[in-house]
Amino acid sequence: MNKKTKHDYLKKFVFILIGPDFVILNSTSTSKFLCTKQNDDNQGFEITTNPTISSNNIIIYEDLLNKTALEITIQSLNYIGAFILICSSIGGQSAGIRSDVFIGCK
Hints:
Blueprint: H1 6-12, E1 16-19, E2 22-26, E3 30-37, E4 45-50, E5 58-66, E6 69-76, E7 81-89, E8 97-104
């Protein structure tokens, strides 16, 4: 009988980092983030915001640098508010990582 250990589950788990983890922007600025995986899990990246922000207010560009790194660019279009940017692995066993984004007046 193959009994799974805690180590077996951790081998499949992918650790993800995002930087910076906190930004303050003005209502018409752009900021870049880097989301990285500890190792390649053969899955893509998933980028979400919480709460969901309309693309009329925020544009999110994704540039896959390699299998373990994704550059994210956020452009604010006269948006004022706060949200959480979440980076996670698509369909994999991972915990998403977040960055807090605050956008104020010019």
